[in-house]
Amino acid sequence: MINVGLDIGSQFVKTVVLKDRINVATCVDKLGSGSIETLVFDNYITALQKAGIEEKNVDYTVATGIGREFIGFADIQISEILCSTRGVNWLPPPTGFFLDMGMEKAIVVKNHDGKPFQSFRNDRCASGTGRYLDIAAKPLGLSVEEMGEVSLKSTKEISISSNCAVFAESEIISLIHQKEKTEDIVRAIFKSMASKVHSLILKMGNVKNLTMIGGFAKNVGLVKAIELEAGCEVIVPSIIDPQLVTALGAALIGSENEKTTASL
Amino acid sequence: MKVQENAGLIYIKHEIATCERRIKRIKENPDPSKPQSNILLYEMERDFRIEQREACKTGKPVGIASMGGLTRAMGMVPWDAIMSADRTHGKAATQYFETIRKEGIPEHTCDRCSILIPMVQQGDFPKPQFTFMSNFECIPVLFAHAALCHTMDIPSFNIDIPIKSFKMDNDEEGLAYVVEQLREMVAYIEKTVPGTKYNEELLVELQEYDRQFLLEFRKLWKLKATIPCPLSGRESFREIRLPSMYPDPAKAVDYMRLYLKEIEERVEKGFSAAQPEEKLRLLWSVAGPFYDDPFSWLEQRGVSIPAAEMTVYNGWFSGREAMWGDPWPGRKLTPLEEEARQMDFVWGREGHYWVDTHLHSCRDLHLDGIIYFQQWGCPTSNSLGKVIADTAEKELGIPTLLIEGRMLESSMFDKKDFYGRLEEFTEICAAKKANRQTSP
Amino acid sequence: MEEKFQTLIHSNDPENRNKWALEWKEQGHKVIGLLDIYVPEEIISAAGLLPWRITGTWDAAVPRAAVHRPSMTCRYCTHVLESFMNGDLDFVDGLVTTQIDDDFKRLYDVLNYIDKPGFLHIMYLPHTTSKTTLDMWKKSVNSFKEAIETYSGNKIDPDELQRQVLIYNKMRALLREVYELRKREVPALTGAEALGLTSAARIMPRELFNEQLEQLIPYLNERKIEKSDGKPRIFMGGEWLDHPGYVRLVENAGATVVMDEFDTGSQYFWDIVYDTSDDLLGALAKRYMMRPGLSRMAQWEMQANRNLAWMNEFNADGVVELRSLYSLPLDYRYLFMRKIYDNNNIFYLSLNREYHLSGQGMLQTRIEAFLEMVERKYRATSV
């Protein structure tokens, strides 16, 4: 049985191909200009080619993510929270909670046997999301990807007093002018973000460990900062790219062909 | 900002025209999916606005002295600026917010309180001859009126309500305190506003109309508990105006009776607001994005909203908060005491009352979750969201969505994000409901 | 003496601020946290407890408080809640507050819910002053006294209460005496130092504070701050401002801060308790309520008149007000005050600020520009 999960985010499209519920291929592409459906379809075909599977042999395709409504070729569109929870539930080791951090959101979800039982999201403010890193990286002349490893070299704790991502940028520039080291500034940025995430985790209650998914789970500095601030273990999936967990969940739901658990 | 000298009638004229358009449309081409009694509602609203317009033109005093009943009993036409501010969403609200930002008027406070100030100062709504100020609802309402009165030299009087609810606790001391202030206010109005005189007979008459109206609402509360819910979310969310605010209070009572009959008919037919079938029932609390329609969005996905939790209403409707004429231990209340009692809303008092009212509504109406809209700058409700969420989870096993937003200013509304959160929450409610139903 | 003065005015710095409360507890007594200037502290002291004004965490991050309080709510209340939830205030045995506004009321509700601290009491305070509201406030004060007696297990002796009134009146008189020294052309202390002094008063046993300040007064009489000619004399406004960094910011921008309207400053001590002969509790109630007060008292004309009088007495050239973000009463009062200051040709700058020290660069730029305007007027009107 061939099932495909497509996760269309704000910046990336991710595809996971399952054969008899085993992951056989994945593909991640950055979205650019042009029709979303075309870009997603190309990504989907690339994944199938990697798996050596023809499109006609696909049994069921599930689309999820904020761009799912544009994907007419999928068999069904299912909400992100259902897909990510299912994906997390499949991963070892089992955890009752997960954090999904993307460019536009940070959400903590309680996982009850693969169903979402509670969630808390960042407010309209960007300062607890990937967008904050995007803003903060520019004055430092780093890519977001580089920031993680850089922060691990920090030896001095400094703090960013502004709660707002926009004002924080100006504060970062001041820190640069004050000749604070880049690694210390980056660590302060992560600490500020981690504090916002900490609040979401606290809302959930007593959380000893949680799984982190989404692209920012690959940022070692951010993961470490969250562990320190929140005082809990953050588990980053090792058997699959954390950015692909939601697409994995979509494919798993497709393999169970659970039309009745689709979005209301 | 210039002080408004002339009566501002722009809003009133606009409302009269809107009501007349709607009345015409209902007469010519009624929408069977909407209550037919709406025609009475629009007629009442239109007539109220005409009354305000004429009062402004003829110099009859326009003001507000606690509720509609006492206002009219003083010989004034009710001035409902804050409720009118509530209705300015979309382009009008965005324009007001531009003024608010430019003029340094507080923005990070309840939207209706922000808009109240430029609405009156710019002359879009009449300047009243008198307004009371009070903490009976909340601090933003008190201080928005204080700011207006102080900057526009509007005569005002403060009625202060204690923290503990004298209404819920049947506390004589608290009641006497508010009544004394009402007496002082009455004397002040008679002295300050020409053409005013306290008419107790009229107050008693209007209080009886308000009572009759709310008695109908108590019947409606039972109908809301029907599965599936026969009321649309928009109907649940509509802020009601008591009969004493209208020039024809008897018509308001008739309207309510007719509306109730329509809902009874819907129940008989098994009508469901949620389509294609009702899968979830949720409580919507505090406020919402008035420039959009999350209720229809939810209803299309099988989610009904039998009730909205706002200020005093569910307390009245469920019978848990006394209304005019309800018993008081040991004696009958005087008309002013009845008025004072109604100025005690659980909304503005100690937090546990506000938490309790959510739980009561969820139990009474068999609800599966709470959508708690944390309107920017609503200190009365914002900081109790998590307490309510935790308590509802613990005592009822139902989840709560805490969602921040603005009710009138739409320029920052991220539709995708907002409906994405609603969607997530409905999934969670469905999962929890399924779990409740299958658990031993 | 300068060292003694510096030690005193730095009492409320984070590394020092718990000292007297912890010493008090070591002696087997209890500490009652306060947030506002309306709770009659004499009653707490008369019951053998230490009234101790709570400074919220000065850290930017408030993750625990954010669980309950969205970001657009009174920042002081949020930072106080954070301090309770992170354990910083575990030594505080109780909290008494008035319902300053809905934020304070909900802070009380959340503390009640999380069951911290052990003793919690909220007093009803009306928003305007009249015979009716004063009578109700007196009842509130009486209920508070009973609650404190029940909690402490001590019935308050009227003589002890009278004694405390004298101690507090003395403290007020001493602080007034110090504030008089700010009227001079070259004040004896800066605005930041004055804030440090009043903050110290609110966290020390009052008799000890009186003792220390009394010893310093002769020294302060001779003291002069560094001031260059032409620096505008500024009257500062704001509420829930306890970080001296904000006052220093105004002074570093080129002002001499000669007077304030802070609840954490002048308003804490300005009026004394009068006429205690017949009705001590009534006199106390009157002192705490029957004054212009904070912006939450909706009698802004009284506050405006007070400010104008102070500006005159202290020879202030302009007003810089730093309003705490999302603190609504002052945000609304701003609309009225600017009309008053405008009518009186007074330069007035009112800006929002965080509770913790933040955004200094932006604030400084705007304050500097404002002070230049004030200076130009000062030079233009000088002979």
Written overview of the protein:
- The complex is a heterotrimer of chains A (264), B (440) and C (383).
- With 264 residues, chain A is an alpha/beta fold.
- Chain A folds into 2 domains: 1-91 and 243-264, Nucleotidyltransferase, domain 5; 92-236, Nucleotidyltransferase, domain 5 (2-Layer Sandwich), CATH 3.30.420.40.
- Chain A is 40% helix and 22% strand.
- Chain A has helices at residues 36-51, 80-90, 130-140, 144-151, 165-177, 182-204, 220-230, 245-256; strands at residues 2-8, 12-19, 22-30, 60-64, 76-77, 97-101, 106-112, 115-121, 209-213, 233-235.
- In chain A, helix 3 runs parallel beside helix 5 (165-177), helix 4 (144-151) packs across helix 6 (182-204) and helix 6 packs across helix 7 (220-230).
- Chain A is globular.
- Chain B is an alpha/beta fold and 440 residues long.
- Chain B folds into 2 domains: 10-199, Rossmann fold (3-Layer(aba) Sandwich); 202-438, Rossmann fold.
- Chain B has helices spanning 10-28, 38-58, 68-73, 81-86, 91-103, 111-121, 139-152, 166-169, 172-192, 200-224, 233-237, 249-269, 294-299, 313-318, 335-342, 351-364, 379-382, 385-396, 415-438; strands spanning 62-64, 77-78, 130-134, 156-159, 280-285, 303-309, 369-375, 400-405.
- A 4-stranded parallel sheet of chain B has the order 2-1-3-4, sandwiched between helices.
- In chain B, helix 5 (91-103) packs across helix 6, helix 9 crosses helix 15 and helix 10 (200-224) packs parallel to helix 12.
- With 383 residues, chain C is of the alpha/beta class.
- Chain C has a single domain (14-156, 230-383), classed as 3-Layer(aba) Sandwich (Rossmann fold), CATH 3.40.50.
- Chain C has helices at 2-9, 19-26, 41-46, 65-68, 75-85, 102-114, 131-152, 158-180, 191-201, 206-222, 244-252, 266-269, 280-289, 300-313, 328-343, 360-381, and strands spanning 31-34, 50-53, 94-98, 119-123, 233-237, 256-260, 318-324, 347-353.
- In chain C, the strands form 2 sheets. Chain C has a 4-stranded parallel sheet, sandwiched between helices.
- The longest helix of chain C is centred in the middle third of the chain and has 23 residues, at 158-180.
- Chains A and B meet through helix 2 and strand 8 of A and strand 8 and helix 19 of B.
